[in-house]
Amino acid sequence: MIKRAQILADSQKYSCFLWGPRQVGKSTLLKQIFPKAKIYDLLLASEYQRLINDVGLIRQELLAANDHRYPVIIDEVQKCPALLDEVQWLIVNHSFRFILCGSSARKLKQTGANLLGGRAVRYELFPLVSAEIPNFDLLKALNHGLIPLHYLNEQPMVLAQAYIGTYLKEEIAAEALTRNLPSFARFLESAAFSNGEMVVYKNIASDCGVSAPTVKEYFQILEDTLLGRFCPVFQKKPKRKVILSPKFYYFDVGVANFLLKRGRIEWGGENFGKPFEHFIYMELCAYSHYSAKQFSVAYWRTTSDIEVDFILGDHQVALEVKGVTQVQDKHLRGLKAFNEEYTVKQSIVVSLDLAPRLCGKILVLPWKDFLARLWAGEIV
């Protein structure tokens, strides 16, 4: 049995938004934690039509029930932004608690919807992380991805294909986030080639047959719908000239695998390194949020191509990810250069090594050890 991270502790006291991509388990988690809560599920056509026609119904029904024991859950809240005015009125005047769940805040932002003026805590649910899975299988995670249904299924690529198709239809088309679906579909594949790489808008624009500003807007759609995120450049008073372009990562390694048409990923194989780095990045982002430490995750690269994969926080930790069975001195070049420029609390290489070891001031950690220390709060 896979248990999700308990990230909703404050929902016992406050209203909150719970954002996350489709199928990461938001609705399942909420039903498990609050089995007796009133749920308005806007994915149900009848419920959506009823409330879109008269948003005041939610106020009338909740006042009639007058039940404050559990929060009120509104699932896919972005489909009816006008509900948020009613939600705020009920919070302020009758002390109701709400959990507002959705896969995209884009429509709310674009329509100028009421985001409750700081009255709701913001949470995000990620795909599964290693700490949530008994007997975690890294190779399975790299091949299947960590969307719960995909990780557990024996045909993850079939599900990934359906996921991308459904997402285009339900999220992008239904919410009219872009008018040119064929171009956006081409962009999704082209963006996959930038997964874990510096983003060069003009190159992607050329591949997709659209302008660079359109490509920037497409990336913004991916961010707003939680399908991907940018890893910015670390540039705190650099002595060396640094690259300024961010990197981009899809929210799940399995989705990236499908879009890139990757073959089977094997230990230490030619196509192992990139998915391994992608996986570690998502673990870092999830831990930063779930732990409430909210440290930044950036990367560092100079114009002379010296690079460190991830810088955590205000250069507290410099981290390299290497899909090799034995880290050698050549793999430490970036960390050594970064340490010459900044004072770092920890310099770490995550690898397939069999045991932890020290190379000067740089700690080499097998991936299992790193993940255990990360989720125990010992890295950041």
From the helix content, strand content and strand pairing, which structural class follows? alpha/beta
The shape is globular
What's the SSE pattern?
Answer: EHEHHEHEHEHHHHEHHEEHHEEEHEEEH
Low-confidence stretches: none
Architecture overview:
The chain is of the alpha/beta class and 380 residues long. It folds into two domains: 9-124, 3-Layer(aba) Sandwich (Rossmann fold); 130-375, no CATH class. It is 40% helix and 16% strand. The protein has a six-stranded mixed sheet, sandwiched between helices. A five-stranded parallel sheet has the order 2-3-4-1-5, with helices on one face. The longest helix has 18 residues, at 156-173. The two termini are 29 Å apart.
Quick structural overview:
The protein is α/β, with parallel strands linked by helices and 380 residues long.
List the helices and strands and how they pair.
Layout: E1 15-19, H1 26-33, E2 39-41, H2 45-53, H3 56-65, E3 72-75, H4 83-94, E4 98-102, H5 106-110, E5 120-124, H6 138-144, H7 148-152, H8 156-173, H9 181-192, E6 197-198, H10 201-208, H11 212-224, E7 228-231, E8 247-250, H12 253-260, H13 273-290, E9 297-301, E10 307-312, E11 317-321, H14 333-341, E12 346-351, E13 357-359, E14 362-366, H15 367-375
Parallel strand pairs: 1-4, 1-5, 2-3, 3-4, 11-12, 12-14
Antiparallel strand pairs: 6-8, 7-8, 9-10, 10-11, 13-14
Q: What are the main properties of this structure?
A:
single chain; 380 residues; five-stranded parallel β-sheet; 14 strands; alpha/beta; Rossmann fold
